[in-house]
Structures are given as structure tokens and as C-alpha cells.
Amino acid sequence: MTNSNDMPLAANPIDRAAHHRKDDAWLDTAFKRDDVLVLLLRNGDPFAAKDGGLVWMGPEIEQVSPGSPRIFLGEDKNGTPIFAVNLPSKFDLESSLIAGAGEFIEFRAAAGRMSPLEANCASTARSIFLWHGSHGFCAKCGAGTAIVEGGWKRECPACGTEHFPRTDPVAIMLAVKGEKCLVGRQANWPAGFVSSLAGFCEPGETIEQAAARELEEEAGIVCNPASAEYVACQPWPFPSSLMVGLILEADSEEITIDPSELESAEWISRDDVKQMLAGTHPRLFCPPPMAIAHHLLKTWAERG
């Protein structure tokens, strides 16, 4: 059975220990502990070993890049504090103290090398650092804001407004009709690559309504939101979404695509999906197991 707690990027999370976030003295002491674990990112890419997972640093990180923004991610099961540090965009690895220890790897490529705990930590850090990068000024008065509470909030010193990291809900849905399901592709995707459709939830609608609306807008497929079956959800740090996976029963089969959203869409059989998942389909391939779209397709295919 598909379970959100086991979904890639969400599995085996650490204890976020949020009660420590407002204690600056505790955070400063924890960051200097000999057993502290620190992961590094630069421009959203994690610092990882060439043949393995993350390269974890200790208190020596302050010598590598003094004063770089940090986030308190929480504690592991042994009570070890875990932080993430965001290195400057122009940080020169080759001339640094950590040259040769690893490399900055594009997140999607690196995620496949990480343990579930590492992937969850790096995914969380990526989302929050990207949010900080685009929210340096107060939306109320325009003054510069400051990072507070272990990296989980920004505060405006001018007007006192508090700003919190945002998470955007996205419906990712598989429309099904009998023994067929709907897949689509965007023009910039590799040849043969297809996936389930997805779209952001708008103000004033439920995630089920968003799924039905997006299916009709993008592919002309009508579904009743009441038919939506929740499967699982997944945090997706590109930049900070919560992908909510649904399966909907389609009322119609005729496809009319919106060319600004999709290059093409088609109904495929359960056997087609099984072949895609196995990597043996002669024409099509689907997202890897890191993505919730893979698990939506797998959930439906295995029912047959």
C-alpha cells in the first residue's frame, strides 16, 4: 500500500525539535558541538560524495564559510543536532578547505544517492533556503527582513511583520477510465517521457476540485471531484510544493489539449504502465521512483 510516510523525500524524517528554534543560545551551542551534523547547499544543490550520499560536516564549517545562513533542521534519534548551511552562490569549491571532499550535485541527481533521512533533510533545506532567497524584503512595508527562529521565519525590524516559509499545494492526478489511464507530456521533455498531469490549487477550491479543473483545462477530460481518491502526498522542493496524489474516474475520453500546457496526451493501458515501470516499453518511459507520479502509476497498475 502506498504510504506518504514512505514517499521519497518524505521518508524517515528527523525530529524537528521546534521547541529549540526560539532559543538562540541553545542553537549557537548546538552548532559548535563536536557531534553536530551539517549539510551544505549552494544554489539549491547539495554537497555530496561522488559515489554516495551527502558529505556531512561538523563545527569546522565555520572555518569554511563564516557567517553563512543556517537552518536548524532538528535532531536525530540520538539527540544529535542537525543543521543546513547555505554557501554563497560564488563559493569557490576548488580553493576552499573542503576541496576534494565532494562536489555540488544537481538535486534530482543527488537524491538518488541519498539515504531516506538525507533526502528528507536536504529537501527541507533546499525549500527553505530558496524561500529565504526570494523573501529578503517585507511584503508589507518593503524594509529588509532578518532570519530568526533557527531559519524558520523572517521578521521585519521596521514594522514587526512575521513571514513564514510557504508551501504550495499541487494536485497531481491520474485520470482513469476502465482499463486505461491518461498521461501527457510537455514539449521540453525528452522524447517518449510521459507523466500524470498536475497543477496548483487555487484560492477557494479543494485539492479535488483543483485536480478536476486542471484535467479539463489541460486535456479536456471531465471528472467529478467527488470521484477523487487520495493516494499519497510528497514534499517537492522545486521550489517548495506539496504534491497531493489523486486518482479520478473520468466521465469523458475525448482529449482536447491546451498547447500552452501540453504537447500531447493519450490514454494508455494497464499493461503499458507496467512496461513503463519495468523500463521495457518500446516507446514510453515515466518518472523515476523519486517522483510521486511514479507511485500513482504504480498504485493503479498493480490493482489490475
TrEMBL record:
Cofactor(s) needed by this chain: Mg(2+); Zn(2+)
GO cellular-component term (any): cytosol
EC category: hydrolase
Catalytic activity annotation: a 5'-end NAD(+)-phospho-ribonucleoside in mRNA + H2O = a 5'-end phospho-adenosine-phospho-ribonucleoside in mRNA + beta-nicotinamide D-ribonucleotide + 2 H(+)
GO biological process: NAD+ catabolic process; NADP+ catabolic process
Enzyme nomenclature, EC number: 3.6.1.22
Ranges of residues in domain Nudix hydrolase: 165-291
PROSITE patterns: NUDIX, NUDIX_BOX
The keyword Hydrolase is assigned to this record: yes
Domain of life: Bacteria
UniProt keyword annotations, A-Z: Hydrolase, Magnesium, Metal-binding, NAD
GO MF assignments: metal ion binding; NADH pyrophosphatase activity
Pfam families linked to this entry: NUDIX (PF00293), NUDIX-like (PF09296), Zn_ribbon_NUD (PF09297)
InterPro entries the UniProt entry points to: NAD-cap_RNA_hydrolase_NudC (IPR050241), NADH_PPase-like_N (IPR015375), NudC-like_C (IPR049734), NUDIX_hydrolase-like_dom_sf (IPR015797), NUDIX_hydrolase_CS (IPR020084), NUDIX_hydrolase_dom (IPR000086), Znr_NADH_PPase (IPR015376)
Family classification: Belongs to the Nudix hydrolase family. NudC subfamily.
PANTHER family cross-referenced by the UniProt entry: NAD-CAPPED RNA HYDROLASE NUDT12 (PTHR42904:SF6), NUDIX HYDROLASE, NUDC SUBFAMILY (PTHR42904)
Protein name: NAD(+) diphosphatase
